[in-house]
Amino acid sequence: MKGCLVLLLLLLGTVSALYLEKDVPHLGDLETQADLSQDSEGSGGQEGELALSGEVLESGREEAEDTHDDEGASDPDDLDEDVQCPKEEETVQLLGSPECKTCRYRLVGTPRRFRKAQRVCRKCYRGNLASIHNFNVNLIIHRLSTTTNYGQVWIGGFIRGRLRCRRFFWTDGSYWNFAFWAAGQPRFGRGRCVALCTRGGHWRRASCKRRLPFVCSY
To answer: CB under 8 Å to 26, separation ≥6 — which residues?
Structure first.
């Protein structure tokens, strides 16, 4: 009788162990889940991923430095009535390109802040600061930019949002699907607007309050 009772207890213990093993995650599973969680939090950390996703991760110190640089996040449709259109001799016009024969670009050599430059593009040319979606267009705009004596020109990229919610946008509302950042950009850059370097054609973040020549597309 005692032998049967011992056997019954052993069977019950085995069944309980199997039940617990089935319902409780293994340590290895927990480690895997933790690794995936860490990978997810760290995704977008590489500059190539940042360039395509438009995400910008920065420290609180950098956030504080950009607090007074919000012009780029303003509504691009907010136009001033007192905007004076550039004279023809202040601009360089490019009509069409092999990639887009109906596209027109105009470099305005008179330096303006980002927001004012966008207003000029909208009011004077019925367009926007140039958005760039492939390398060939970037090359065209880079070549156009070399006609100015400044080291940088405004294009239509800007940052909207705060801290980890920051993302890049184009003033014309088109999709952010291409970038040509200089080394260390955009992660270690400053400013909420995007400028194209006249040497090399790479992009850098810059304070929206800087006065630069700019390229309109229309």
So the answer is: none
Tokens standing for residue 130: 């140039």
Q: Per DSSP, what are the bridge partners of residue 211?
A: none
Residues 153, 146: Cα–Cα separation, whole Å: 9
Residue burial 79-96, b: 16+ Cβ < 10 Å; e: rest:
eeeeeeebeeeebbebee
CA–CA gap between residue 217 and residue 126 (Å, rounded): 9
Q: How far apart are CA 188 and CA 5, in angstroms?
A: 72
Question: Tell me: the pLDDT tens digits for 173-188?
Answer: 999 999 999 999 999 9
Provide the 10 A C-beta neighbour count for residue 193.
29
Residue 136: CB atoms within 10 Å: 13
Q: What is the mean pLDDT of the chain?
A: 75
**212-217 and 104-112 beta bridge pairing:** antiparallel
